[in-house]
Structure formats: C-alpha cells, structure tokens
C-alpha cells in the first residue's frame, strides 16, 4: 500500500537526445506497439472467426448499446486519466480521490443504462436490446475502477505491464466469446466478449499499479484535475457525438442489419487505428511533457513522431482501401461483401484523422484543453453536415460524408493550434504533405495492379497489392525529401532495436 503522503512523479528529464528519455521513449514505443500489434491480430482473429458464427443482425443489436456506452465512457473518464498523467506531482490522497470519482461516475452511468434499457430498445425497435443494455451496464463500473490504475502505470512508464494486460484482456475475451458463439448464444457472445475484456483489464491494471486507494478526503483538493478534465471531456463528447452521429443515422433509418454491416466495416478500420494511437500517445505524452520547456527538442520529437505514426498508418490504410474486396472475402466472408465501399471510405478517413493526432498530444501536454474544446465546438458542423448530406445516398453516402469531414478539419486544426502555442507548423504541414503524396502514388499502383489482374484469388490479390506498394515506396525513396524521411524512420527503428537488445 502506498503511503498517504507519498507522490508519484514522472521520471526526471535526461540530459540529451540519446540519454535516458530517448531510451525510455524507444523502449516504451517498442513494447506498446508490439503489444498493440498482438492485440490488433487478436481482434482480426476475432473478426474473422466470430463473423462466420454470428450474423450482421447480431452485431447490429450490440452496436446499438456500444454507441451509448461510447458516449458514457467519455463522462466516466472525465479526462481525469490524462489529468493524472500530466500532473507534475500526484499524491496518494489525490490519486485515491480521483479513483473514487471515476468509480462513482462509472456506477452512476451503469445504473442509468440499466434503467434506460427499455426506452432504448423502444427507440431502436429492437426488444433484444433490453437484456444487452442491462448486462453491459457493468462495463461502466469495471472501467471506472480501472481508470486511475492505468494512469498510474503510464506515469510510472510501466509500458511492458500495460502491453501485457492489453494483450491478455482481448485474448481472454475472444476465447470467452468464441465458446459462447459455439454454444449458440448468438449476440450474447459479443456481450460476454465486452464484459470479459473489461474485467481482465481491471484485474491487470490493479495488480500492476500496486496502489490501494484510501478513503475519499475532502481536505485534499483535486479541483485542478477536474478543471482540466472538464474541458477535455466536453471536447471528447462533442467529438464523439459528431463522429458517431453516422451510427445513429444508419441505425434509426435502416435498422439492425445495415447497422451491423456499417459497424463491422468501421471497427475493421478504426479500432486498429485507435489501438495504435492509444499506446503511442501513452509513450509520447510523458516524453513531450518533459521536453516542453526545450522548444527545439520538443519540435524535433513532435515532427519525428508525426512521421513515425503517419507513414505506417497511411500505408496500412492505403492497403485496406486498395484491397478491400479480398480483405472482406478472407476476413469476414461473402455475407459481408456489402461492406467493401464502406471499408474504403473509412480507410480514407483514417489517414486524415491520424495526421491530426499529433496536435492532440500538444493540447494535452501543454494543458490547452479549453482551446481544444473551442476548436472542436467550432468545427463540429463539418462532420455533422457530412453525415446529414451523405445520408441522402444511403449507408454508403453516410460513409462518404464521414470520410470527407476529417480532410476538411485536419488542416484547420494545425492552424488553430499554432494560434495558441508554439508548434513546428511548417514541419508538420510538410511532413503530412509528403505522407499524403506517397499514399496517393501507393494507392494508384496497388489499385491498378488489382484491377489489371481480376482473376487472382483473394490471397494472391493481397500479395500483389503489397508488392505494388513496396515497389512504389522504393521508387519514391529516390526523391531527396522522401529519402530523408526514410532515413529518419530507419534511425527510429535502429534505436528501438538497440534498446530491445540492451
């Protein structure tokens, strides 16, 4: 048990680029990305197997509740995990108070979902939603209990433990869901999956944090945490409401089966994307916090972070967009072929969302949650308009609106950020432009190759698509600017490799 007067502070800044901070960043990035890579593979395995045992209707029923839980999860966290991570000092008493706040919010939200299960089912016209909502109400409480344990692990830079837990949880959830599906439980298999994952995440984070929360103390103030978190939660709420309006429109207008198709395509692209961004953020934010008073190094780390995150994600999205048909055929089966155009639009959106993500790091690191809230509110009309206009052309039109919106808001996000704090705008715009250019050439080559070879089996189509992208990358590296980016990425890879063998 941690003493009540102790503090949990971030490690001290290193003396240079190659010192302890760089080593921590490299090791953290390696461990977290390796763990998340395994997690993404597990989720793909879950998609491939469960999509053949369950129907789009089953996924649509659970998606109705997942959307509601997603909104509630923003309130449940209340931005307090980010507030705890960025705090220069965090006492045991403060951490305990934050633990009880998050847990209390989780309990209230879970109770609310349980009580509103009936009206929710009536609104969507699906009676099965009642049982699903009442069972999944427990997710709020489990995640509320987990929040501050995870924050402590991030503050302590215990990335290996986090990565292990983040792999074990979906693995256990997949096994539980598979067993339930094989026993013929239908959509309840997906409910079991969500509950199992939340429970394992709680147990793993609690064991790793090694902190027994004390009783709440009124004489210990957490007002500054709540102020920061309040702005952040409002920002996330606006973001979620505008970015998930599409799901509500599809569900209300078209029913559970089209929603199941839409949700699977969305999850196939966006979930792996977010699960790469989340661990990278867990590494980047603590490192950037220690560099924020050293502007040249801060700018250099930020620009390199954009490249290290941007190129791999953009090329992965290009691969998904170019080879959507064989990907769906292999992973989901023929009953899901209607998701192909949806998958392509979501991949397009994923590139833009990823480019804007480094800006989020700066807002969190420099405590600019109020500025982030103002920007999010000011640009909320863009995704809303995209969905509502696109809805005139059905489910595919909604996906197109979702894809266009981030390409409008991303350039504005960097401009807005540059008005409130010092950021290397020219480097970030330039790096993004090169990532986009490479992505366009890679997509053109990959798509042309698949089009010219229509008789290839699905596995062969994936192989030639990957080969076309690799060939384009080799040719583009002849350009000096792209060659410099490749060298920077190679240096990051070498540093990570050295830290792994050290």
From TrEMBL:
Record's protein name? Membrane protein involved in the export of O-antigen and teichoic acid
The record's subcellular location field reads: Cell membrane
Name the residues that span the membrane. 60-78, 98-117, 129-149, 161-185, 191-209, 307-324, 344-365, 372-391, 397-417, 429-450, 456-478
Q: Which UniProt keywords apply?
A: Cell membrane, Membrane, Transmembrane, Transmembrane helix
Q: What is any Pfam family matched here?
A: Polysacc_synt_3
Question: Does the keyword field hold Protein biosynthesis?
Answer: no
PANTHER family associated with the record: LIPOPOLYSACCHARIDE BIOSYNTHESIS PROTEIN WZXC (PTHR30250:SF10), PST FAMILY PREDICTED COLANIC ACID TRANSPORTER (PTHR30250)
- Provide a GO CC annotation, any one: plasma membrane
- Originating species: Brachybacterium faecium (strain ATCC 43885 / DSM 4810 / JCM 11609 / LMG 19847 / NBRC 14762 / NCIMB 9860 / 6-10)
Membrane topology (UniProt): Multi-pass membrane protein
Which InterPro entries has this protein been placed in?
Poly_Biosynth_Transport
Q: Where is this region: Disordered?
A: 1-20
Bias kind Polar residues: ranges: 1-10
Similarity remark: Belongs to the polysaccharide synthase family.
């Amino acid at each position: 048990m941690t003493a009540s007067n102790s503090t949990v502070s971030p490690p001290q800044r290193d003396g240079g680029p190659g010192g302890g901070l760089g080593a921590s960043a490299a090791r953290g990035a390696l461990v977290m990305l390796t763990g998340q890579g395994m997690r993404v593979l597990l989720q793909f395995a879950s998609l491939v197997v469960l999509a053949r045992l369950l129907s789009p209707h089953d996924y649509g029923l659970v998606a109705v509740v997942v959307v509601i839980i997603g909104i509630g999860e923003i309130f449940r966290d209340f931005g307090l995990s980010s507030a705890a991570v960025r705090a220069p000092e965090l006492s045991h008493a403060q951490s305990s108070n934050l633990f009880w706040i998050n847990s209390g919010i989780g309990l209230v939200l879970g109770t609310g979902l349980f009580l509103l299960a009936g009206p929710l089912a009536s609104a969507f016209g699906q009676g099965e939603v009642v049982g699903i909502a009442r069972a999944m109400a427990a997710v709020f409480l489990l995640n509320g209990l987990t929040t501050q344990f995870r924050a402590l692990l991030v503050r302590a830079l215990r990335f290996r433990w986090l990565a292990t837990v983040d792999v074990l949880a979906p693995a256990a959830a997949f096994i539980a869901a598979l067993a339930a599906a094989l026993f013929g439980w239908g959509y309840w298999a997906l409910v079991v999956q969500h509950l199992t994952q939340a429970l394992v995440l709680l147990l793993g984070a609690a064991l790793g944090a090694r902190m027994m929360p004390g009783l709440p103390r009124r004489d210990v103030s957490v007002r500054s945490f709540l102020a920061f978190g309040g702005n952040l939660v409002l920002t996330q709420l606006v973001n979620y409401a505008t970015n998930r309006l599409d799901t509500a429109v599809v569900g209300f207008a078209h029913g559970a089966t089209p929603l199941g198709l839409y949700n699977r395509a969305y999850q196939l692209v966006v979930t792996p994307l977010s699960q790469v961004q989340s661990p990278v953020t867990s590494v980047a934010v603590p490192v950037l916090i220690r560099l924020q008073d050293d502007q040249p190094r801060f700018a250099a780390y930020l620009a390199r972070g954009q490249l290290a995150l941007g190129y791999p994600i953009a090329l992965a999205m290009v691969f998904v967009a170019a080879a959507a048909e064989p990907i769906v055929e292999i992973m989901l089966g023929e009953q899901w072929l209607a998701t192909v155009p949806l998958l392509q639009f979501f991949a397009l959106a994923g590139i833009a969302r990823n480019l804007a993500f480094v800006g989020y790091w700066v807002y969190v690191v420099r405590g600019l949650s109020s500025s982030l809230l103002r920007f999010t509110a000011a640009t909320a009309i863009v995704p809303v308009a995209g969905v509502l206009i696109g809805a005139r052309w059905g489910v595919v039109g909604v996906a197109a609106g979702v894809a266009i919106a981030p390409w409008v808001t991303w350039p504005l996000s960097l401009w807005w950020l540059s008005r409130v704090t010092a950021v290397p705008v020219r480097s970030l715009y330039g790096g993004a432009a090169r990532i986009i250019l490479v992505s366009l050439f890679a997509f053109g080559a990959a798509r042309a190759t698949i089009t010219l070879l229509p008789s290839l089996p699905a596995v062969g189509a994936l192989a030639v698509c990957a080969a076309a992208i690799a060939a384009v990358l080799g040719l583009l590296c002849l350009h000096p600017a792209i060659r410099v980016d490749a060298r920077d990425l190679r240096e990051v890879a070498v540093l990570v490799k050295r830290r792994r063998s050290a």
